[in-house]
Amino acid sequence: MTLILPENYDPVLDIRHTQEAIKYIRDTFQREFGNELHLSRVSAPLFVTKSSGLNDNLNGVESPVHFDMKAIPHEDIEVVHSLAKWKRFALKKYGFQMHTGLYTNMNAIRKDEDLDNLHSAYVDQWDWEKIITKEERNEETLRQVVRHIFKVIKHMEHEVWYKYPEAVNHLPDDIHFITTQELLDLYPNLDARQRENAIAKKYGCVFIMKIGDKLSNGEKHDGRAPDYDDWQLNGDIMFWFEPLQCALEISSMGIRVDENSLVEQLKKENCTERMELPYHQAILNRELPYTIGGGIGQSRLCMLLLKKAHIGEVQASIWPDDMIQACKEHHIQIL
Predict the structure, then answer these.
(1) What is the CATH number assigned to the segment(s) 15-329?
(2) The pTM is what?
(3) Residue 125 catalytic?
(4) Are the beta carbons of 246 and 217 closer than 8 angstroms?
(5) Of the residues 30, 120, 232, 252, which is catalytic?
(6) List 26, 88, 110, 195, catalytic entry
(7) Contact 315/300 with Cβ under 8 angstroms?
(8) Taking the domains of the chain in order of start, what are their residue ranges?
């Protein structure tokens, strides 16, 4: 995706009112989201030790920002990409009970990100995780939780409409479910991103399931680290976003690996050496709870609800000078 500059773009809200709306959306959503899924807010780290194996490897090619610490010599410290693994440890450490969980404000730096309307080097999301039983590790559980999340997002449309009726984006009334293989079968002549755009435009909001494994064409729909999501029980929530004429991913989530799917997926990715790391050992030894979890983009949600054309309108990050100038010329107000 390259920079998209919508014609005759009108941000509607000025910067000051946009800042007020951002705070309102974030405060309101996290409260309602926590209540809906029975989650408690906790504090979370900005960085972890490399040796812990807790950092999210994303697609396996992105390198984390890292540094050393005077107080901990001979240890490489990494700024988190996400808290996908840390949360599962935290649920056990903090004594959470069955069908309860946590959420946290996750801030990350992804220095290898290709910057455009939707992607920033600064990542801000609500990371969340909830304990389930082993028997609940199934598609029915996944769909049920997705519908809970969609319900809260849809309710936020009404909340924002009440305060900012001139700016709110009107969302679809339901979410459609489809697997990556079904999507490929439906649009065999399109690439993965084009398939996402086509299905999101058709239904308004979709949950695209089973991401990470190879499809019938020998390719992956998208990359997923092999050691947190179960590739058969995960997916992305995407909305059709009219200002940019593309699918807008709001959440990546899934039921987490158990002792069997972890080994299977590590073998497929040729990284079985990770099984010696503390996090992976804890899963193999069944010391951690079975969970479902994910991340919900805070700035992405603000973009969606306020119809903003660039993520830089709802978060403060760093952008190339030519991008800032191009946005300015098209009335896109970069913070």
Answers:
(1) 3.30.930.10
(2) 0.91
(3) yes
(4) no
(5) 252
(6) 110
(7) no
(8) 15-329
